[in-house]
Amino acid sequence: MQIANLHKVFDNDVVAIENLSLEINPGEFVAILGPSGCGKSTLLRIIAGLEKPTGGTVQIGQGKIAYVFQDSHLLPWRNVLRNAALPLELAGVERTDRIAAAREALSQVGLADAVQRYPAQLSGGMKMRVSMARAMVTHPDFLLLDEPFAALDEINRQKLDEQLRRLWLLHRMTVIFVTHSTAEATFLADRAIVLSTRPARIVADLPIDLPPDRPAVIRSSPAFATTTQKIYDALERGGA
Amino acid sequence: MQTFLAVFWPPVLVLIAAIIILHIWASALDEPFLLPTPRAIVRIAINRRDDLLSALWTTTEAALIGFFCSAAGGIAAGVALSASSLVRRAFYPYTVFFQTVPIIAVAPLLMIWCGPGLPAVALCAFIVSVFPVIAGTLTGLLSTDPALEDLFRLYGASRWAKMWKLRLPSALPSIFTGLRVAAGLAVIGTVVGEFLVGVYGPREGLGVRIVSAKKQGRTDEVFAAVLVASLLGLAMFAVINLAAKLLLGRWHASEQDH
User: Fold this and answer.
1) Which chain B residues have a beta carbon less than 8 Å from that of A89?
2) Which of A162, B80, B96, B142 could serve as a FRET partner for B164 with CA atoms 20 to 30 Å apart?
3) B184 with B233: CB under 8 angstroms?
4) Of A4 and A77, the one with more pLDDT
5) What tens digit of pLDDT does each residue of B96-105 get?
6) CB-CB under 8 Å, B161 with A90
7) Which residues form the domain of A90?
């Protein structure tokens, strides 16, 4: 994925992104960090094609995109199974096929037993899992996540981080994960891109040298602490 | 039965209290022409039950026709208005006409245009009750979760899929709010229409009964007919509530048990 000289100016003349260039390799897990309101969500929306850049280009070639929002945003009138099957339904996939695919995606996030429930009957963590299953159901080549677990409590958030990492090990799609948590970025990603305050430019592009398979205890290792600190320092340099 | 009592004791208590107060007041006043006692109203309602039931049936027919036209027309108009902001700016101000028009002044015109019959009465019911449906539908359609709109766009959903699978379902609670208001208004519009149109077809409606009872100085019968008309509005309201509960019960907060 190639992002070249990206500019984004909003209608109210606020410059969100200025001259940003970035290259992301297929199958890479990238975390994008930055202070609140720096334009990282805007960057993600432009990559997804939900917003048009004012200048510059985004080339992502062929591939399916999936997007996970800050909240689960499920359809409250559909049960878990039909929520997870929605992207395939919109793509015109046969009913039996899409139900089978939705069941598989749900079992990969540990919700095989909750398929008949409605969103109103689920906890915040479970809703977010359904949202992830809905994103994964098309087997996307690009998975874009915009601070997906920010509203959850610490324990749920860590569990979902672990789940997401496992999904990535299984499918090896390109992941771009927007967050403002240095620890979350370190645990999840193989590369951290730190943005400055608005207008967003790249302050640091840091590799994260941790093993691919990451158990929960890795969070208390010295290497984890050093990496988190490096990202933190970069955020400070960017004016956060 | 026990849950029924648990849910309904507050309104039942209010009803009983109101009947007692009305009874004491009317007995003390002792002017049946001004204010008949509740007992006198019930007695006349039982005595004239055949007339009242046939009037109720006539009124129900017109009210239902008016209401269904409002539901269908109002939802269709809401969908059309939601299509573009240009369409909305051009037409929405004129739909407010339905809300503000003094039906009592327009009804004679309807009689001239449609003749004194069922169409004129049903049209009265329609005019009075369509606006809340339009407003409810439009508000619901325009307040769809923007993230879900993005999601549908991301997966290349057609306009049709967006409307059927996203906008209309998420507008349903708001549409039902409009329909609830419209149900009561349709009965009011029908009774007003009957006031002006008078007898039509083989039977006469509740509005006609009210006018003729008043002319004969039968205040108790006026009250009885008004009571029956209110019960009709209440019954329509209850049916719509039930439909809302069946359709939205599992997911919408407004339909969950409080």
Assistant:
1) 165
2) B96
3) yes
4) A77
5) 888 888 888 8
6) yes
7) 71-138
